[in-house]
Amino acid sequence: MSYVDEVIARVKEKNPGQPEFHQTIDEVLESLRPVIERDEEKYRKMALLERLTEPERQIKFRVPWIDDNGQVQVNCGYRVQFNSAIGPYKGGLRFHPSVNIGILKFLGFEQIFKNSLTGLPIGGGKGGSDFDPKGKSDMEVMRFCQSFMTELFRHVGADTDVPAGDIGVGGREIGYMYGQYKRLTNKYESVLTGKGLSYGGSLARTQATGYGLLYFTRALLKLNGIDIAGKTCIVSGSGNVAIYAIEKAYQMGAKPVTCSDSNGWVYDPEGIDLEALKEIKEVNRARLTEYKNYRPNAEYHEGRGVWTVKADIALPCATQNELDLDDAKALVANGVIAVCEGANMPSTLEATKYLQGNKVVFGPAKAANAGGVATSALEMSQNAERLSWTFEEVDEKLCGIMENIVANIDAAAKEYGMDGDYVAGANIAGFKKVLDAMEAQGIV
Ligand code: NDP
Ligand code: 2IT
C-alpha cells in the first residue's frame, strides 16, 4: 500500500467518530500524494505524515459558570495546538453547541495550510466550546468567557498561541477574554486578535475575512478571464464573514441576493439590504425573520435553500458541509461560474468533485478565507511594534496577500500537472513551507 493510503487508513482507525477530521484528511493527503510520492521512502522513514496528522497538543477542560438565575452551568472547553513548525499556533475559537474534538481537529488541521498560504509566520491551531452564546445575556457571556480564559490563559501567549474569533466569537467575546487574560497574567500582550480598536485591535480585521474572500474571488475569476462586475452572487450565512463579503461584493459592482441563518434564508432579488442586515445581526443579534420588516418584497423561507437560486457566483459563508452534492447539481444546472468558500470546508467532497468536474471555478476555503487570519497576523505585527496602521494600509496588504495566494495556488497546481485544480494547488502550496520547516527542525 502507498504511504499516503497507509496513513489515511491509520488516522481514521485511530480517530473514530470524527467524520469532519476524516474528511479533511482525505482531501488534503490525497492532494499531497504527488509531492509525497516523489520521495516516499524518505517521508515514511521520518513519519512525516504521522506527525503532520497528530496534533502537537490537545487541551480539554471544564468551564463552569453561573447563569442569570444563579444556576451553575458546565461546558467543555478545548484548544487543539496542531502544528507550530512555521510560527506560534494561530486560529479561532468557536462557541457553538456542535463543537467537539473532531470538529476542532478538522479546523486546526485546515488552519495549518491556510496560515502557511498567507506567507506569514503562523502555525495552526483551533479551539472553542460547546457553549451557545445565542439567547444569553451579556453578563452570562462575560462570566462564561472569564471562566473559559481562567483555564486557557496558561496554555496561550503572544509567542505561543494566539486565538481569535470564529462562529459565535466576535468582538464582545474577545473583549471579555482579553480582560480576563490581562487580569490573570498582568500582561498587555497580543494574546488574542480581533480585539477592539481601543485596546490593540487592527483596523479592517472585522471586515477582513469577507473582504479577503472577494479579493480572492475577483483575482481567481480574472485568472480565468472573467470580470466580477455585474455578476449575481448567492451568499449563505449572515455572520461576520457573510456580512463583509456582501459589502465588498457591492463595492466590486456585483449583486448579492441571498443570505441565511440556521433557521432560514432570504432571497432579495433587488440585492440584500446591507444596512438592514447589519442592524439585525450586529446590533440586535436577532433572526433573519426580521428582514421582511425592512424589505417587504423580499422572500423569507424556513430551512435551507440558498443554493437553488440562479446566480453566477456562490459564496458559502456559514459552516462545514452546508453545500452537498444535490446543491452542487442545482448550482451547475443554474449555470454557476464559480464557488469560493468563505466558511471552513462548506462543501462536501462529493460536491467539490462534482463542481470541479463540471468546469466550475472552485476556490477552496483554506485559500479563499485566509484573509481573516492574515489580518490577524497583521494585528500581531502592529502590536509588536506598538503602532497602528491606517485602514487603507491594512486593506491594501490584505488585498495583496489574497492576490498572492491566487498566484501561488495556481502555480502549484500547474507544477504538478493539475492546471485549474485549486484544491490541490492550495494544499500543495500550503504544505511545502510546513514540510520544509518540519524537515529543518528534526524529529519533534
Ligand atoms: P458567525 O458566528 O459570525 O456567523 C455564522 C453564521 O453561520 C450565522 O449566520 C449562523 O447562523 C450560520 N451558521 C452557523 N452554524 C450553522 C449551522 N450549523 N447551520 C446553518 N447555519 C449556521 O461566524 P463567522 O461568520 O465568523 O464564521 C462563518 C464561517 O466562516 C465558519 O465556517 C468559520 O469557521 C469561517 N471563518 C471565519 C473567519 C473569521 O474571521 N470570523 C475566518 C475564516 C473562516 P445562526 O446565527 O443562526 O447560528
Ligand atoms: O478560520 C479562521 O481562519 C478563523 N476563524 C480566523 C483565525 C484567526 O486567527 O484570525
Report on this model:
- The protein has 17 helices and 13 strands.
- It has 444 residues and is an alpha/beta fold.
- Among the domains are: 134 residues, Rossmann fold; 156 residues, Rossmann fold (3-Layer(aba) Sandwich), CATH 3.40.50.720.
- The strands form three sheets. Strands 1-2-4-3-5 form a five-stranded mixed beta sheet.
- Bound molecules: NADPH dihydro-nicotinamide-adenine-dinucleotide phosphate and (2Z)-2-iminopentanedioic acid.
- The site of NADPH dihydro-nicotinamide-adenine-dinucleotide phosphate has 23 residues, from helix 9.
Q: List ligands, each type once.
A: NADPH dihydro-nicotinamide-adenine-dinucleotide phosphate, (2Z)-2-iminopentanedioic acid
Structural class: alpha/beta
Helix content: 40-55%
Sum up the overall morphology in one term.
globular
Report the end-to-end length measured between terminal Cα atoms. 26 Å
The quaternary state of the protein chains shown equals single chain
What is the β-strand count?
13
Number of helices: 17
Strand content: 5-15%
Q: The biggest beta sheet, please?
A: 5 strands, mixed
* String of helices and strands: HHHHEEEHEHEHHEHEEEHHEEHEHEHHHH
- What value does the Rg take, in angstroms? 21 Å
**Residue windows where pLDDT falls under 50 for at least 5 positions:** none
Average residue pLDDT: 98
CATH class of the domain at 208-363: Alpha Beta
**CATH third-tier fold name of the domain at 208-363:** Rossmann fold
Tell me the CATH architecture of the domain at 208-363.
3-Layer(aba) Sandwich
Largest sheet, order of strands side by side?
1-2-4-3-5
Query: What do we call the CATH homologous superfamily of the domain at 208-363?
Result: NAD(P)-binding Rossmann-like Domain
